[in-house]
Amino acid sequence: MRRYYNGIVLLFLFMILVNCSTTRNVDIQTMEPAQVSLSSTIKRVGIIGGRVHLKEEKEQTGLNVLISRENEKLAIKARDAAINGLYKALAGDTRFDTIILMEDIVENKEDPNTYGNYLDWNTVESLCNNYDVDAIFSMAYYDSDTRVSLKKTTMEQLNLLRVKEKVAAQQITLETLIENGWRIYDPSSKLLIDEFTFNNQIVSTAKGLDPYEALQAIEDRAESIVEKSKQTGSSYGARLQPYEHSITRDYYVRGTTGFEQAEIYTLSGDWEAAADLWKKETENIDPKISSKACYNLAVLNERNNNLDVAMDWATRAYSQYQTKKIAEYIESLKYRQQQNELLLLQQSESLTSK
């Protein structure tokens, strides 16, 4: 009974805290520019694969050798899946006329000052001329590291009487870390347009009467590794596309009866009615109240993607009552304006290239 009353009290206190909160949150959906910008002159691209590098256990037991052999074949298959994932992503991009899968015939030169292998510009230009492409997407490397661990355990097994009983067993765990690096080369400007690395971890475990039987009992490991690798290729292609993003802003709901009434309107979805009340509060003789109303109108206009109007209201809010919160919000709006300009530029170049 005491627990019941304690629960009621906690719920009551929580409701009081919620109701007394001076602000509420609103989620704003934004469209962000692509993480990678390409020139509209790039219409034909080539994709080249990278070397597969496997890290091996220092202790090479018979089990580790068997796993290493399987991993070598699997890594090559997974690397190819990643390249095909990128190919499909680029093939769906209307900016490109042609996507060419280039043979992995390049001996990448290793730069001791960087991680992975880079193509020198003479090689890039030669490849672009030979394949008649404007840029090269390169998987610079594909690294795979598998850690093997064993431990004693038990498992159920049917005995001769077809009755389940616990028997001594071994549990094997394969923890595979995959890292692949991608780069985009533009020979016309000798510019490394982008460089990005993906990291994935796949953990597989199973039991058996001995380590070899436990290894054979592992299911779907190969499929998971190949699928994860394919997703990295698709995800890298997605870096060329604008993407939706959600940000959270807060707005004031306390201070006057006008703010409290406006809160009711926002909760019902009637933001325009709330805006009318906030506009009235901008004329409040208390600069703190007036500033909060201007701030709310800035957030509302940002929600409606009217960034310039939002900046005007935010600036007015700061002039009324200077706070760190409003100053930081103005900086956030400046960043959003810059991102929006970049998005419009990317969209314009995309239309031009079609």
What structural class results from the helix and strand content?
alpha/beta
For the residues shown, what is the average pLDDT? Answer: 87
User: What string gives the helices and strands in order?
Assistant: HEEEHEEEHEEEHHEHHHHH
What do we call the CATH topology of the largest domain?
Answer: Double Stranded RNA Binding Domain
Query: Level of helix content?
Result: 40-55%
Point out poorly predicted stretches.
6-18
> Outline, from the CA principal axes?
flat
**Biggest sheet features:** 6 strands, mixed
Tally of domains: 2
> Judging by the overall fold, what is the CATH architecture of the largest domain?
2-Layer Sandwich
Distance between the termini: 71 Å
| Extended strand count | 10
Q: CATH top level of the largest domain? A: Alpha Beta
Number of helical stretches of at least 4 residues: 10
**What would you report as the Rg, rounded to the nearest angstrom?**
29 Å
The share of residues in extended strands comes to 25-35%
